Amino acid sequence: MVSSSKEIKDELFSRKLRKYGNERGAVIPLLQAAQEIYSYVPKEVISMISEATKIPQSSIYGVVTFYKQFRLKPVGKHIIKVCQGTACHVNGANEIMKAVEEHLNVKEDENTDDGLFTLQSVACLGCCSLSPAVMIDDETYGKLTPDSIRGILDSYRKNEGEKK
Ligand code: FES
Questions:
Q1: Lowest-pLDDT range, 30-34, 67-71, 148-152, 160-164?
Q2: Measured from the CA of 85, which atom of ligand 1 is nearest?
Q3: What is the pLDDT of residues 94-123, one digit of tens each?
Q4: Rounded to the nearest whole angstrom, what is the distance from the C-alpha of residue 82 to the centroid of ligand 1?
Q5: Which of 15, 40, 49, 151 could form a disulfide with 71 if both were Cys (CB 3.0 to 4.6 A apart)?
Q6: What is d(CA 74, CA 41) in angstroms, rounded to the nearest whole number?
Q7: Contact at 8 Å (CB) between 61 and 71?
């Protein structure tokens, strides 16, 4: 029988839960594991962690919302991180952000309607000499202009179209 990817993810998370569920201080490692597996923290996971650790769900939500690394919503297939560090800011990060927002019809921390992209802004990506810079998944793009970022986004869309 072929398992769906949801079943595989659920099984992976259940294993983590069995491994760490009874330990004190398990909440953050479990949330990190959930985020790694699902790429966000689903509601059911919070209730599973609450049950295993006997910590109220409200406290777990408190942890999730305190740490910026955790997301409560699913993300798009590609994550776009627009650098807002000083060098990028000076070199036009705002125009790059605006170009992405308009081109994809999306706002910061939202997903595009087709689920292909999630837009985020981040502090320095560590490649200031390439400012303004954007990272899409693990790929860094530098010395961008509004035109060049639009072209890059189009190439992602085109690739996705060809895969279908
Ligand atoms: S400020 Fe953008 S990469 Fe450093």
A1: 160-164
A2: 1
A3: 999 999 999 999 999 899 999 999 999 999
A4: 9
A5: 40
A6: 8
A7: no
